[in-house]
Design a protein that fits this description.
By secondary structure, the protein is of the alpha/beta class. It has three domains: about 60-270, Rossmann fold (3-Layer(aba) Sandwich); about 275-415 and about 520-550, Rossmann fold (3-Layer(aba) Sandwich), CATH 3.40.50.300; about 420-510, Winged helix-like DNA-binding domain superfamily/Winged helix DNA-binding domain (Arc Repressor Mutant, subunit A, Orthogonal Bundle). It has helices at about 10-20, 20-25, 60-65, 75-85, 90-100, 120-125, 140-150, 165-175, 185-190, 195-200, 230-235, 250-260, 285-300, 310-325, 335-350, 385-390, 410-420, 425-440, 445-455, 460-470, 490-520, 525-535, 545-550, 555-560, 575-585, and strands at about 105-110, 130-135, 155-160, 180-185, 205-210, 240-245, 265-270, 275-285, 305, 330, 355-360, 375, 400-405, 475, 480-485. Residues about 1-65 and about 565-590 have low confidence and may be disordered. Bound molecules: zinc ion.
Length: about 600
């Protein structure tokens, strides 16, 4: 496929990623010394230079040159963060990302939950002289953000499909006024005929893409609506882009950069786990899992979250907790909206120490600092998802536990879930020939009607059409009717490509599941495993996870000689004898 910008190679992303880690950051006044260096395209990996970034002449992108933030700098941003948001100190990575944005660079920030990603656009947005557009996948999330920005007196409007006519009119009028303004919207609204004009006229200086991993088909949470954001960027006049995500492997980062057309982006990434999280995995079977989960739930400090893969399991677990008189709540797709909201509200109350039994539907935008544990009763679909969900624990920096109860059979549940949401090659072919039939009669078609004629589920038809639209096969008019804009021959070729891509996705999903299995069984440090997966080259052992705790630290291990008759202890048993030894040494006989 023809891509607008030469992609970053994995190595490039890696180099900049390791720069972003706090450990290297602290040793180097990165921001002042021009941290925001370019990620040169197709450069060979430069492991030598990690500690000392080579100085490169900094070119400013067009949007920066036009002075959208009016020559403001990081000091102004810090001051504003203090005054308006009550943030006394920016996290070093927050500051790095903010500085890159203010300097006019396309920026990709990969920061786990709890790093305050939103602030990275909120502060520069208020320093700018033109509107900032923020695209996010969830309207519920936007509603919360809007409320919190309003409380702080920040100029903000939300424009999405849920607005009533008068509200929409008011929001668009505010957008037309221009000046510093945060505009929260969805990818669908951004591209809709009704609002596009207004967005284009506003000449935004920054397009912020929240949950940017949704744009990547390699990612674990692909949303077809995100595919067109690169095109939208062009139509908005090519504003600078800030892409935010909690997790992205090097490959997904490359994909984000390509699809959004990022030009030499500053990549700022934090390690996927935090120093206060203890990662643990227990291998269980269907027969032992419930008992083990029950025992953990009673013992672990609360509040906590139990994640299940299916709504059925989440419901059953919640009921079991209720029977066991454990203060709990349930959140999953089978509960009504009102029930879910009530459960979330209850869980968020600071006075309550509940255990939430939930599916992955629960958590986006949940900002409860004192979650003491995240227990996965069933395996998630990928390490990306795992890191995101487990990372909701311990945002207050206090010790918290992330436990995965791993039964290899659970991966089959994930396989089933993944199959359900994806078009098969046959479905894609049927959708394409139905499209051709409608086009043959010179009639545009709604996705729902197309689904009927293709005999495919509507969701799958929609997703397939969005992908075909992304590669220029279709366009959509203001009434959301689809028009075929290529010849039938071209359609056949593109459809074949799409089917191939879907097959690749399937393989990728399978690989992700296998990686999860590897993570569960790794004999080495779990934190290091995650960090390697997310692109770090030689991550240190954490010293906190269950694997590290089973082994004495390396230095000591080398010094200590095994006692006579004692081989190297098996990892499963080694912590007990150690504790005994220490205890034995303690009591000293009186000197007399
Ligand atoms: Zn470890």
């Amino acid at each position: 496929m023809n891509r607008p910008v030469a992609p970053l190679s994995a190595g490039d992303a890696l180099t900049d990623t390791s720069l972003g880690f706090p450990s290297t950051f602290s040793s180097k006044p990165a921001i002042e010394s021009g941290y925001a260096r370019h990620v040169p395209q197709r450069r060979k990996r430069d492991t030598q230079g990690e500690g000392r970034p080579r100085r490169r002449r900094r070119k400013r992108s067009a949007s920066a040159a036009s002075g959208s933030t009016g020559g403001k700098d990081l000091a102004a941003a810090r001051k504003l963060a203090r005054k308006r948001f009550g943030i006394q100190r920016l996290h070093p990575l927050q500051a790095q990302a903010m500085e890159a944005v203010i300097a006019g660079r396309d920026t990709l920030a990969v920061l786990p939950t709890g790093y305050g990603k939103s602030l990275i656009y909120q502060v520069p947005a208020l320093l700018a002289d033109r509107p900032t557009i923020v695209v996010s996948p969830l309207i519920a999330l936007m509603v919360d953000q809007e409320a919190s920005l309003r409380r702080r007196g920040a100029p903000v409007v939300r424009i999405d499909s849920t607005l009533r006519v008068a509200e929409r009119r008011a929001a668009l009028a505010r957008l037309a006024e221009g000046g510093p303004l945060i505009v929260l919207t969805t990818p669908e609204t951004l591209e809709s005929e009704a609002t596009r004009e207004a967005f284009v006229r506003a000449q935004p200086w920054l397009l912020c893409v929240d949950e940017a991993h949704c744009i990547s088909e390699w990612g674990h949470d692909f949303r077809p609506a995100y595919l067109r954001l690169g095109v939208e960027r062009g139509e908005l006049g090519g504003p600078q882009v800030l892409a935010l995500t909690a997790t992205a492997t090097p490959r997904v980062r490359d994909d984000i950069a390509e699809r959004l057309g990022l030009v030499k982006p500053a990549v700022i990434a934090a390690p996927p786990d935090r120093a206060n999280l203890r990662l643990e995995v227990e291998l269980v079977s269907a027969a032992t899992k419930d008992e083990r989960a029950g025992r953990l739930i009673r013992r672990l400090p609360r509040p906590g979250i139990v994640y299940c893969a299916t709504t059925v399991a989440a419901e059953a677990f919640g009921i079991a907790m209720e029977r066991g008189r454990i203060p709990s709540a349930r959140y999953h797709g089978r509960r009504t909206k009102a029930e879910r909201e009530e459960a979330q509200k209850r869980f968020m109350r600071p006075s309550k120490k509940l255990v939430m039994s939930a599916t992955s539907a629960f958590g986006m935008g949940i900002d409860k600092p004192n979650i003491r544990f995240v227990l996965h009763y069933q395996s998630p679909g990928s390490l990306e998802q795992y890191v995101q969900e487990a990372g909701r624990a311990g945002r207050d920096g206090k010790p918290s536990r992330c436990i995965l109860l791993f039964d290899p059979a659970d991966l089959d549940i994930q396989r089933h879930l993944q199959q359900r949401g994806r078009a098969s090659a046959a479905q894609i072919r049927r959708i394409a020939s139905a499209l051709a039939a409608w086009a043959g009669e010179d009639r545009p078609v709604l996705a729902a009607d197309l689904a009927l004629s293709a005999n495919a589920p509507v969701t799958i038809t929609r997703a397939t059409c969005a992908q075909l639209e992304g590669v220029g096969v279709l366009t959509r008019d203001s009434k959301k009717r689809l028009h075929l804009v290529v010849t039938k021959r071209e359609l056949t070729i593109r459809t074949r490509d799409l089917a191939r891509r879907v097959a690749t996705q399937q393989r990728e999903d399978e690989e992700r599941l296998l990686t999860l299995d590897e993570y569960a069984r790794t004999p080495g440090c779990r934190s290091a495993f995650l960090r390697r997966y997310f692109g770090e080259e030689k991550p240190p052992d954490c010293g906190r996870c269950d694997r590290c705790k089973l082994r004495p630290p390396r230095a000591k291990r080398n010094r200590k000689r095994p006692r006579r008759g004692e081989g190297r202890p098996s990892p499963e048993k080694s912590d007990k004898p150690r504790r005994k030894r220490r205890r034995r040494r303690k009591p000293k006989p009186p000197a007399s």
